[in-house]
Amino acid sequence: MLQATQMTQEVTIKDLESEKSRANERLSQLEEERAFLQSKTQSLDEEQKQQILELEKKVNEAKKTQQEYYEMELKNLQNRLEGEVAQLNEAHSKTLEELAWKHHVAIEAVHSNAIRDKKKLQVVSTNS
User: Fold this and answer.
1) Residue 15 CA to chain centroid, in angstroms?
2) What's the rounded Cα separation, in Å, for the pair 42 and 49?
3) For the segment 47-76, what is each residue's pLDDT rounded down to a tens digit?
4) On the CB side of 126, how many CA atoms lie within 13 Å of its CA?
5) Who wins on pLDDT, 123 or 97?
6) Does position 95 have pLDDT exceeding 70, yes or no?
7) Mean pLDDT on 88-107
């Protein structure tokens, strides 16, 4: 009987050792899987960081391009405005010159008429 109990205990010990070995193998597999998943998570985190950096770079480039475009447009508008102002100033100067000339001609005409009228009056007063 003692021998049967001892044999039963040995079988139980072997079963427990076998179960312990399987549990250790399963634990080892789970640890490998955890390490793999952790590595994959870190890799994905790095990939996301790189994607974010790339997107930020593209956004900054787009902002810079847009700002350069607006600055160029503003400069073009300023140049156009300066050209139009120069044309208006030139037209204004020509108009003033024409008016001055017409005024001068009108004054000369009035002066000539005054001299002619004065001579007529002198002739009339001499004849009277």
Assistant:
1) 73
2) 10
3) 999 999 999 999 999 999 999 999 999 999
4) 6
5) 97
6) yes
7) 98
**Residue showing tokens 């399963």:** 26
* CA atoms lying within 13 Å on the CB side of residue 88: 6
Query: Which residue has 């930020």 as its token pair?
Result: 56
Q: DSSP letters of 4-52?
A: HHHHHHHHHHHHHHHHHHHHHHHHHHHHHHHHHHHHHHHHHHHHHHHHH
Which of 7 and 96 is assigned the larger pLDDT?
Answer: 96
Give how far Cα 95 sits from Cα of 85, 91, 100, 105, 114, Å. Answer: 15, 6, 8, 15, 28
- What's the pTM? 0.52
As given in the structure block, the two tokens for residue 115 are: 């001299």
Give every CB contact of residue 93 below 8 A, 6+ residues apart in sequence.
none
Residues in the chain: 128
DSSP 8-state class, residue 109: H
